[in-house]
Amino acid sequence: MILEAEVISQQSLPKHVAIIMDGNGRWAQARRRPRAFGHKKGVDSVRRAVQFCSKLGIESLTLFAFSSENWRRPEDEVSTLMELFIYVLSKEVKKLNKNNVKLTIIGDLSRFPNSLQQRVHEAQTLTQDNTGLNLNIAANYGGRWDITQAAQHLAEQVAAGHMQPSDITEEALTEQMMMADQASLDLLIRTGGDFRISNFLLWQAAYAELYFTDTLWPDFDEQAFSEAIACYVSRERRFGCTGEQIKQLLAEKDATS
């Protein structure tokens, strides 16, 4: 059964979902096709995921497109991924803009060709005023890099005399992280059957619910996404508290509402 917005309360839905889109290569190999074929097929799943989140009213969707470790892959596969990235930016951004989606690319873009950096700039500029779904594409991104660049920004402020070392708090560091202006990460999904987060959103995922599925990314459709959301909704998020404390807090909230 595919979830509809009316089936569950908006309050119980995750505000921010992230997905590690794993399994493109294996999907293609199972069909005796080159790995690049799987990556191209995975674009269809990206479209479905964006449509699904927009329909449910989820605020932010973050997709792990290219990690800082993916440069180690075969040169022809990396080249294909770069070409696919440029193609998708060129062909899809107008559709995203038409559907009020705001596109943000997170990661260290300095290693990408100038032509790709320009496409990224143009795509972000076109959609920057949109008020619908926040679509974040992580490209040349790593969680350790994210934490490092945040720490460097704070160190620069200390060196310039704008703040003291004692001013470096968890909140101050959070403000320097990618997507600091968006809702906290609620649900992290990984397709493809592996049980790890692969250096993705290490800081942001501190209290996120984790969901792992054997479904390969090209096969991740609305049904599979619905199952992940349903699992999330069924869980009790405690944030370090006991279950009884959470129930008491909810009861007090209901009594005052």
TrEMBL record:
Annotated substrate binding sites: 23-27, 35, 39, 67-69, 71, 73, 190, 196-198
This protein's UniProt keywords: Cell shape, Cell wall biogenesis/degradation, Magnesium, Metal-binding, Peptidoglycan synthesis, Transferase
Binding site for Mg(2+): D22, E209
Cofactor(s) this protein requires: Mg(2+)
Cofactor binding note of this UniProt entry: Binds 2 magnesium ions per subunit.
EC number(s) stated in the UniProt entry for this protein: 2.5.1.31
GO molecular function, one term: ditrans,polycis-undecaprenyl-diphosphate synthase [(2E,6E)-farnesyl-diphosphate specific] activity
Reaction(s) catalysed (UniProt annotation): 8 isopentenyl diphosphate + (2E,6E)-farnesyl diphosphate = di-trans,octa-cis-undecaprenyl diphosphate + 8 diphosphate
Cell membrane keyword on record: no
GO biological process: cell wall organization; peptidoglycan biosynthetic process; polyprenol biosynthetic process; regulation of cell shape
UniProt KW Manganese keyword: no
Class in the EC hierarchy, top level: transferase
GO cellular component, one term: cytosol
Catalytic residues (UniProt): D22, N70
CDD domains: Cis_IPPS
Subunit structure: Homodimer.
Role noted for this protein: Catalyzes the sequential condensation of isopentenyl diphosphate (IPP) with (2E,6E)-farnesyl diphosphate (E,E-FPP) to yield (2Z,6Z,10Z,14Z,18Z,22Z,26Z,30Z,34E,38E)-undecaprenyl diphosphate (di-trans,octa-cis-UPP). UPP is the precursor of glycosyl carrier lipid in the biosynthesis of bacterial cell wall polysaccharide components such as peptidoglycan and lipopolysaccharide.
PANTHER family per UniProt: DEHYDRODOLICHYL DIPHOSPHATE SYNTHASE 2, DEHYDRODOLICHYL DIPHOSPHATE SYNTHASE FAMILY MEMBER
Family: Belongs to the UPP synthase family.
Protein name per Swiss-Prot or TrEMBL: Ditrans,polycis-undecaprenyl-diphosphate synthase ((2E,6E)-farnesyl-diphosphate specific)
Protein source organism: Pseudoalteromonas piscicida
